[in-house]
Specification:
Elements: E1 6-8, H1 10-13, H2 22-33, E2 38-41, H3 43-49, E3 58-61, H4 65-71, E4 76-78, E5 84-89, E6 92-98, H5 109-114, H6 127-132, E7 142-144, E8 149-152, H7 156-161, E9 164-165, H8 171-177, H9 180-192, E10 195-196, H10 198-201, H11 204-207, H12 216-227, H13 232-241, H14 245-248, H15 261-275, H16 282-303, H17 308-323, H18 331-343, H19 352-359, H20 364-377, H21 382-393, H22 396-405
Parallel strand pairs: 3-6, 9-10
Antiparallel strand pairs: 1-8, 2-3, 2-7, 4-5, 5-6, 7-8
Helix pairs in contact: 9-12, 9-13, 15-16, 15-20, 16-17, 16-18, 17-18, 18-20, 19-22, 20-21
Bound molecules: adenosine-5'-triphosphate and magnesium ion.
The site of adenosine-5'-triphosphate has 12 residues, from α9.
Length: 423
């Protein structure tokens, strides 16, 4: 890798200037007018070159954050020791970061911030250094709107054309510096449909245990990106394949390569909803991931004499606490997962007002969707699931008839509970 960038002209990269946010272009322009270097960097250029729509635009510059604020009086300096400037244009925020150096030693800037240790990423660096401290070559491209050229210090453009995902530098060293890159490798591979360069892909399984050193809160952020981006199911399969899933969600399935149907379908449903622009919540996926553990444990508690709803609440709490040792689950989501679980036994009560009341529960819809998934695993539940489907579709009067009859086709016969065979 050289100090000099290769310059990719517009005729070659073909990114039309109007695909780039005018706010980002304005930020770069004004910094350049003030005599600084400034480029649009990172994921946005990668996404554009691959024909995707970037979700945000980042700018890198040799101006210090304070100098950025001199240029944009309204910029907000954020982060420890004022590492970044946020420049707002209407509803859009452009993140402006000062070029960073590589620093030396083992640990990466992010982890140092997380662990509250001295942060090294205030060490400003050159343009070339800033490119090289990034993770993957395709994430290190710098676009200059003034000349419409891409500046590439690491062979990222070639990799992009070859649809190849490759870490900058020695992969083993780079994973050690920041093991979250293991997850990012899988995420970008699946999201952008890239080949993993062998040197980048091969060490992943043997380095997977390094994820144990990552704080659960940071892993949670990464999990959201892994599973809420519209490719949860292929991402899950790749995580299993690279031995990363077990580091994130240990001991949930007998064979992670063949997860329960309910889990597979929950992910496929989530992807489908993302594709259709419908709202999705990670709580639903967490509820599915942990369900077999929660259900098994709740059955034990029920056998010990606990009422079903309490048993599910207790088992759910246990499962969440255990899981949180690895991946912190935001309370908002864990409590919704618990609601989904605890509503399940209430679906079995179809008689009278009680049944109608379930329908006005805040989490009814999510819990009902969850019941449909359970019915995939347990055919005995299908009739119950159909009943709840029907009652939502019919008019007021018929609804009353249904809850008076209590049951659909079954007529008074209690649905036989399928139990796991006792060995
Ligand atoms: P997306 O936002 O689509 O997930 P992105 O590439 O923009 O992808 P961000 O997490 O927003 O990813 O990071 C922005 C840029 O910062 C990346 O493109 C990369 O250059 C750099 N970067 C992010 N995380 C790391 C890391 N762990 N190690 C090194 N560089 C990183
Ligand atoms: Mg980004």
């Amino acid at each position: 890798m050289s100090e000099k960038a290769s310059i990719i002209p517009e005729q070659r990269h073909g990114i039309r200037a109007d695909r780039i946010s005018s706010s980002a272009r304005k930020v770069v322009e004004r910094l350049q007018e003030a005599g600084f270097l400034a480029y649009i960097v990172g994921g946005s250029i990668r996404d554009l070159a691959l024909g995707h729509d970037p979700k945000d635009f980042d700018v890198a510059t040799d101006a210090t954050p304070e100098q950025v604020r001199d240029v944009f009086r309204s910029a907000r300096l954020i982060g420890r020791r004022f590492r970044l400037a946020h420049v707002r244009f209407g509803r859009e925020i452009i993140e402006v970061a000062t070029f960073r150096g590589l620093g030396e030693g083992e640990d990466d800037e992010h982890r140092e911030v997380e662990q509250g240790r001295l942060v090294r990423d205030n060490v400003f660096g050159s343009e070339a250094e800033d490119a090289r401290r990034r993770d993957f070559t395709i994430n290190a491209l710098m676009y200059d709107p003034e000349t419409a050229t891409i500046r590439d210090y690491v062979g990222g453009y070639e990799d992009l054309i070859a649809r190849r995902l490759r870490l900058i530098g020695d992969p083993v060293t780079r994973y050690r510096e920041d093991p979250v890159r293991l997850l990012r490798a899988v995420r970008f591979k699946v999201k952008l449909d890239l080949e993993l360069d062998p040197a980048t892909g091969d060490p992943i399984p043997e380095m997977a245990t390094l994820l144990q050193d990552i704080p659960p809160a940071r892993l949670f952020e990464e999990i959201l990106k892994l599973f809420m981006g519209g490719k949860a199911w292929p991402t899950f399969q790749a995580l299993v394949q690279f031995g990363l899933w077990e580091q994130l969600f240990p001991n949930l399935f007998d064979d992670p390569a063949r997860p329960p149907v309910l889990v597979e379908q929950a992910m496929k449903n989530t992807d489908q909803r993302v594709a259709e622009g419908q709202p999705v919540t990670p709580a639903f996926l967490f509820a599915a991931f942990l369900w077999s553990r929660v259900e098994d444990r709740s059955k034990e508690l029920i056998d010990e004499g606990m009422a079903p709803v309490e048993a599910l609440a207790a088992a759910g709490e246990e499962a969440i606490v255990t899981q949180a040792e690895r991946v912190a689950i935001h309370r908002r989501f864990s409590s919704m997962a618990k609601d989904i679980w605890c509503l399940q036994p209430r679906f079995e009560k179809r008689r009278g007002k009680r049944a109608l009341r379930v329908m006005s529960e805040r989490r009814f819809r999510a819990a009902y969707d969850f019941l449909l998934l359970r019915a995939l695993e347990d055919p005995d539940l299908q009739e119950l699931a159909d009943w709840w489907t029907t009652i939502q579709e019919v008019g007021e009067e018929e609804r009353w008839q249904m809850v008076q009859a209590g049951q659909g086709k079954g007529k008074g016969r209690r649905r036989p509970r399928r139990r796991k065979a006792v060995p």
